[in-house]
Amino acid sequence: MKVLLVEDDDRFADALTTALSGRGHRVERVSRADEGLRRKSSVDFVLLDLGLPDGDGLDMLRRLRQVSAVPVIVLTARTEETTVLRALWGGADDYLVKPFRVMELLARMEVVRRRLPRPGTPTAGADFVVVGDVRIEFSTRTVTVGEHRVRLTSREFDVLALLARSPGVVRSRAEILDAVWGDAFLAASRSLDVHIRGIRAKTGRPELIRTLRGAGYRLDSGETAAP
């Protein structure tokens, strides 16, 4: 498993990296929150310290959870109940207080890994999704409505495919921007709205993608989408 360790204490980071590597994990260590956010998509698990030089780890956790469901265990010396609750409510899967035993950390990582499904992962072997009379084929990147092929732009297809891989699951604006544009924090960008309108117009199925105000978008059928 590839593990991202976000920790600014060199001595602690070196010891933990050695211990995890010795048990078969590949560890990538960074010391800053911004570096951790940039590397989130290439790892299977995040171990997160809270005291980072460029900000509080709780803020990194909040930003991470806007775009990713990667498992996270907080590793910190902070024992205050309010901090523990903020971390868990903010999306951490577990919270471990330093100092701790490596075997306990490994056990907690395994428990978290087993119990968390990975949202957005397509069913094994699935190469297409059908919603009403709309068929979306991932390998050929084609969309048909009834018997007619719809010509989407590359980015329009990327947006539609992201939603189609988990029908009914709400994807936030930040998550879609991160996955398709590579930047989750282009808050002022209207590109996503333009592409959603393009998909609706070209398919002639405005109900295909539903807008949930303040939450995001989901692939849907049966109800008219918000404009």
From TrEMBL:
Pfam families: Response_reg, Trans_reg_C. GO terms for biological process: regulation of DNA-templated transcription. CDD domains: trans_reg_C. Residues 2-113 form the Response regulatory domain. Residues 126-221 form the OmpR/PhoB-type domain. GO terms for molecular function: phosphorelay response regulator activity; transcription cis-regulatory region binding. InterPro entries: CheY-like_superfamily (IPR011006), OmpR/PhoB-type_DNA-bd (IPR001867), Sig_transdc_resp-reg_receiver (IPR001789), WalR-like (IPR039420), WH-like_DNA-bd_sf (IPR036388). Residues 126-221 bind DNA. The modification 4-aspartylphosphate is found at residue 49. The keyword ATP-binding does not apply. GO terms for cellular component: cytosol; protein-DNA complex. Keywords: DNA-binding, Phosphoprotein, Transcription, Transcription regulation, Two-component regulatory system. PANTHER family: REGULATOR OF RPOS, TWO-COMPONENT RESPONSE REGULATOR ORR33. This is KDP operon transcriptional regulatory protein KdpE. The gene is kdpE_2.
